[in-house]
Amino acid sequence: MCKKLAFILSAAFLMLLSSDRVQAQKAFEQGRIVGTAGLLLESNATPVTIAVEYGVTDEIGVAGKVVYQSSKGYSAYSLGVLGNYHLAKAFSVTGNKFDPFLGIHIGKPFASRDGRTASGSVFAGAQLGARYLVNERIGPYAQLNLGLVNSAGSSFELGAAFKFGN
Predict the structure, then answer these.
(1) Exposed/middle/buried for 27, CB within 10 Å: 0-12, 13-18, 19+?
(2) Alpha carbon distances (Å) from 10 to 15, 21, 66, 156
(3) Which residues form the signal peptide (predicted)?
(4) Residue 60 pairs with which residues in a beta bridge?
């Protein structure tokens, strides 16, 4: 877990160093890409998560997400898609730093042991979270994932968010 956290923090630091100054913008907006890298805090493991979200409108984003974990000859990952409704306008959030959102997701898990790969049932759920940008390009995020269909339950996710593009 320490290596995973060090990797995420290093990536966040490099993104912060490479970010250029841009005009003040909304925390989430149409045409922008927001990437996240984090840790999924569960009782039996700590998978790494990576997601990329595209702003279809100022309020709606679609994303792809990968979750990966490995331990002693066993690895597991899931591939998913999600849709988020960004609540800043609905809650009259002022400024360009805070980005609360809620959404739904669907995905498929895969596992590998001793060179054999198997897939699990399609799962679905909901998420509720927020990002807080410390500058125009980077900030922490937290997200609660609620398993609704064929899921192992709920989990909490923490990590760094990165805005790309102009």
Answers:
(1) buried
(2) 9, 20, 19, 21
(3) 1-24
(4) 85
- Looking from the CA of 35 toward its CB, the CA atoms found within 13 Å total 11
- pLDDT the model gives residue 19: 44
- Cα angle 102, 31, 130; round to 5: 25
CB atoms near residue 143 (< 10 Å): 23
CB-based contact 36:162 (threshold 8 Å): yes
From residue 85, alpha-carbon distances to 22, 29, 48, 70 in Å are 25, 11, 23, 32
Residue 5: exposed, middle, or buried by beta-carbon count in 10 A (0-12, 13-18, 19+)?
A: middle
Q: What are the mean pLDDT values of the chain's consecutive 10-residue runs (166 residues total)?
A: 54 48 66 95 84 96 96 89 94 86 96 88 96 93 93 89 86
